[in-house]
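#structure-requests
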Amino acid sequence: MKNGVKFLTIALAAFAIGFTANNYAISDIPANFKVATVDIQEVVASSAQVQDLKKEQQLKTDELVKFVEKARKDVAMQKDEAKKKSLEEKYSKELQAKREKMEKDYIEKLQKIDESISNTVKAQAKLGNYDLVLAKGVVLSGGEDITPLVINVVKQPTTKPKAKTTTKKRRK
């Protein structure tokens, strides 16, 4: 019985210490701590940059398909087996090089878009004075959804600034 009382006393003491430590940890959070959430998938789907990249990739894919069709015709027209094999190898190498370049360009552009979206989220968080921004998928409840604010920014088409051309008149 004495062991049971000791165990209960130790368990209650451990609970009290844990409860106190938890309250102390929570008390360090400022009262005006602001949390925002963002639905990244929705933002990406709405991004003008992503839409442009998809269109560009489709055009490049169409070009590859045309290249393959032309290569097949050229190879089929060749009667000499040795030349046919040489032509197949040539086109195969060209196709592989085009695919690799296309993939490399796609990855580079995707990374720039990812960075741009991240910067947009950070900028919106800063404008709203948020201390923490979480992906909407990991938040069960709470936080202010800033997805619409971010979408408004990323929906804007990206236009490249035109180079200024100045013409200077000659003095006579």
